[in-house]
UniProtKB/TrEMBL annotation:
It comes from Plebeiibacterium marinum. Gene3D superfamilies: NAD(P)-binding Rossmann-like Domain (3.40.50.720), Regulator of K+ conductance, C-terminal domain (3.30.70.1450). It comes from the Bacteria. The keyword Iron-sulfur does not apply. This is Trk system potassium uptake protein TrkA. The lineage of its organism: Bacteria, Pseudomonadati, Bacteroidota, Bacteroidia, Marinilabiliales.
């Protein structure tokens, strides 16, 4: 697939890297020559120094033969204009990054589609939604819902107190009469393992389970996690994500938001309905104590500084907060934050890449998620009539070794798969895949 990315900022660079790794023909446009030179030295792509809103520069990139045009410059207006121009010049599919929720309303999305913008992506809104989801179940590092929560992916840190620690997957399966979940991957010391029956759970493993709402309790019990309801939430940072998170939590939780900028604090207090907005430095321990940090069930750090977010979450955990969420935009810090037990990690680049990536898959895909603490991805494929995946039981199909099938949604019902499961046309199938396995499994669904 021929892909043009307009904007070489953090999101554009990460998406470019992801597309190059998937062997697409990638062209990256930006007006910062030095930035493009650095990117060009590390990735197999073409770079063009130019304006993302210049018709001549877009023509130079041969946008008329572009299969997918992704506009992710720093400013919303540039993003929309770039996507409109690309569509008019012949790009087949256009995606524009925005930061205005009004544009996502159905009637407005249709308006933009008429202008030539096929899809709008708002990473901050998606991040806020992910944070809201993470607060539903305490004790997990990551939660992803498929088909409105009929199937769920949990990322859970395994500790010495877990009943499954030092047991193989086969031994764990024998602990229960009914199969309530599948272990689709294990992240161990920075490496992702696609496990088989003889793989053993170890202390400090980050295990990924596919389950159903009915099986979620068993996952938590087997992982040694105690569940409790979150009622009181403190948010550090009045960024766009912080504001969106507060708006999503109002009415369900008691929310406090700490923002260091006085003017922004005033605007947030006027906008938010029931959130208590506090003007102060959230790095100040005395302020956190005064505002009742010890009574908080959850702490969400979403300032513009990854280091501040990590340190603040560490501080909150020391003060007894049981659920912490940190926005970590510096990719180099993700492993560090995972290893020191920060909790749930949020990264806008990965969220945006997940949303965009499904447009590059030839098979029918209804959901894609790039995992924060693993190089693997989770995809929800739709099985096509006559595809190889429907030609026999899973145990007979010789699935790639770097792929695991976790569960199926069939006629609205969730199924935790076994080797005897046979996929039928129109099944939605949740697949966990390493980068090397994505194209292999994609062919089986096409």
């Amino acid at each position: 697939m021929r892909i043009i990315i307009a904007g070489a900022g953090e999101v554009g660079t990460h998406v470019a890297k992801m597309m190059c790794n998937a062997n697409h023909d990638v062209i990256l446009i930006d007006d910062n020559e030095e930035r493009l030179r650095q990117i060009d030295a590390h990735f197999d792509l073409m770079t063009i120094v130019g304006s993302v809103s210049s018709i001549e520069d877009l023509k130079q990139a041969n946008v008329s033969s572009c299969d997918l045009f992704i506009a992710v410059p720093p400013y919303e207006e540039l993003s929309i204009m770039s996507a409109i121009l690309a569509k008019k010049l012949g790009a087949k599919v256009t995606i524009a990054r925005i930061n205005n929720y009004e544009y996502l309303l159905p009637e407005n999305k249709e308006f933009f589609k008429q202008l030539g913008v096929d899809e709008l992506i708002y990473p901050e809104q998606l991040a806020a939604k992910e944070i809201r989801t993470s607060l539903k179940r305490v004790g997990i590092r990551q939660q992803i819902d498929f088909s409105d929560g009929k199937l769920i992916l949990y990322g859970v840190k395994i500790r010495d107190n877990a009943p499954i620690v030092n047991k193989t997957l086969a031994e764990v399966a024998e602990m229960h009469d009914q199969k309530l979940y599948n272990t689709v991957a294990i992240n161990r010391e920075g490496y992702t393992i696609i496990p088989r029956g003889n793989e053993t759970f170890r202390h400090n493993d980050l295990a990924y389970f596919i389950t159903t709402p009915e099986g979620a309790k068993q996952v938590m019990e087997d992982s040694g996690k105690e569940q409790f309801d979150v009622k009181n939430v403190m948010i550090l940072g009045g960024s766009r994500i912080g504001k969106k998170v507060a708006q999503r939590l109002e009415g369900y939780y008691n929310v406090k938001l700490i923002e260091i900028d006085r003017d922004k604090s005033t605007r947030l207090a006027d906008t938010l309905e029931s959130t208590l907005v506090i003007n102060g430095d959230g790095r100040n321990l005395e302020l956190l104590k005064d505002e009742g940090i010890k009574k908080m069930d959850a702490f969400v750090a979403v300032t513009a500084n990854s280091e501040v977010n990590i340190l603040a979450c560490q501080l909150a955990k020391k003060m007894g907060v049981r659920k912490t969420v940190a926005e970590v935009e510096n990719m180099d810090y993700i492993d560090l934050a995972e290893n020191i037990g920060i909790g749930t990690l949020i990264n806008k680049k990965l969220i945006a890449a997940s949303y965009i990536y499904r447009y590059t898959v030839k098979a029918r895909v209804s959901h894609v998620k790039c995992l924060t603490s693993s190089e693997a991805e989770v995809l929800e494929f739709v099985a096509s009539e006559g595809s190889k995946i429907t030609k026999g039981r899973l145990s007979e199909l010789k699935l790639p070794k770097d792929v695991n099938v976790g569960g199926v949604i069939r006629s609205g019902q969730a199924i935790i798969v076994t080797g005897n499961t046979q996929i039928i046309p129109n099944d939605k199938v949740v697949v966990f895949a390493m980068p090397s396995g994505i194209r292999k499994i994609e062919k089986m669904f096409s």
